Amino acid sequence: MSDPVLSAEQAIRAHLLADVALSGQVDNRIYFEEAPSDAEHPYVIISVQSDREIDRTPVNQVALIFNVRVVVIADTSGLRLASEIAALLRKRLHRAALDVEGWGMYWLRRRSGIRFVHSHDRRNYAIAGGLYEIGMTEDDE
Known about the structure:
single chain, five-stranded mixed sheet, alpha+beta, elongated, STM4215-like
């Protein structure tokens, strides 16, 4: 059995990297859990918020919630740019069909959005994105 979280993370990243408009904004700067300290802005972070098994014996099913967000330096246009990139994330992910290794998808939907400014080391960062839920069934071996 492949790990559903790791498989879904890889599938989300690959799906986002395939989007020309999004790649034009963040290039290949899409990271899991946290960005490197020297990462160029803007960048996207994918992090798991929850995973749960759906008890439907004998089929192994899971529901995962991922936080997919963009981080932008919040200068005069930072929050606007973060919101624009978050809209690209939503367009690319909401109701998308991902190719998840070892798992069959039966839904991917945006649950809610996020948007805020965070201060760290005397610098402001605009963060925007959303929580995305994925339902999957393990492929037969």
